[in-house]
Amino acid sequence: MAKKKVQTDEIHQKESSESGSSYTLKDLPGVGEATVKKLQEAGILSIRTLAMYPMSKLMDEAGIGEKTAEKIIKVAQDIEKMGFKSADIIWEKRKTLNKLTTGSQNLDDLLYGGIEPGAVTEVFGEFRTGKTQLAHQLCVNVQLSYEEGGLEGNALYIDTEGTFRPERIIQMAIAKDLDHNMILKNVIVGRAYNSDHQILLIKESPKIISEKNIKLIVVDSLIGHFRSEYIGRGTLANRQQLINSHIHDLLRLTETYDELAVIFTNQVSAKPDVFYGNPITHTGGHVVAHGATIRIFLRKGKGEQRIAKVVDAPHIPESDSVFSITEDGIQD
Ligand code: GTP
Ligand code: MG
User: Fold this and answer.
1) Is residue 97 domain-shared with residue 65, that is, in the same domain?
2) Strands (E), 3-131
3) Cβ within 8 Å of residue 67, ≥6 positions away
4) Does 84 map to a domain?
5) Hey, whose CA ends up nearest to atom 18 of ligand 1?
6) Is 198 inside any structural domain?
7) Ligand 1 pocket, 127 CB below 6 A?
8) Is ligand 1 within 6 A of the CB of residue 306?
9) Cβ(324) to ligand 1 under 6 A?
10) Tens digit of each residue's pLDDT (9 = 90 or more) over 247-305
11) Is the domain of 180 the same as that of 48?
């Protein structure tokens, strides 16, 4: 039975605090079964995702004509109330934001409470500085209650280097007296075999995010595949463009879902001057540097110790803190 399509004045009348999320794609004017199918195949499952989609991408990826694309994005944006907001409303939302604990009080303090949902965090540093260990720890911690510093959700781990280790998850879960079988079940791992596959896994993630209550997405590492596949100057521009678009896919996910944190790792080249001079210089160039909202630079200290520094976060001063990698996971 055909349901009546949503009317523009209806959207404005609708009293809804955050969004008119009671609508589904089928309710949009001019959207029939066939279009819904095309949208779903492109990974667009909700009005909110559609509202954030760039038009050219929608046309490319879902094979939708320009007129329709323009129209349905506009209606989706109206439903989601994507116009201007006053700063006090933004503050109201930020004030109540739950942060995800890293397991180290020092590191949490540095980050004003932990990893932020609704943002993309980059963890970068030389090899063995603990990027992968921190990523594993967050997959455990995200499952904790809000009181314990978790987000009461699950993790999606995109492993591009084959370094995901369930053994470490088990150790970290046991150290917190958690049922490690449950914890393992709630870490969904996608092994990305090349850069195209990596991009595809993220594009296909919306279905899993809703179904499995995903609150954390890890991409470890972001540009490893791109770096090995795109060699030579001729292909550099193309590579940067793909990475840029991939990071924007991640950003859009954090904006689409209410409480979703995204972290990606990035290895810096081992040139000593990079560490003493300008630690911000790292692989991926400006495209990567500008893509992340918060960037954490890791370097080695004595033994198990690691030093973290936050660089160019919009609201955190640049400062250092020390944490440790132990068998039990990330600690002070
Ligand atoms: P790349 O991926 O090579 O760039 O490095 P990374 O930054 O991801 O390093 P990773 O997170 O894999 O950290 C490796 C460090 O963690 C090594 O120094 C290990 O010694 C340490 N580590 C891993 N497992 C354990 C453990 O069970 N106990 C302790 N104490 N340290 C561990
Ligand atoms: Mg690693």
Assistant:
1) no
2) 120-125
3) none
4) no
5) 128
6) yes
7) yes
8) no
9) no
10) 999 999 999 998 999 999 998 865 544 444 454 455 666 777 778 889 999 999 999 99
11) no
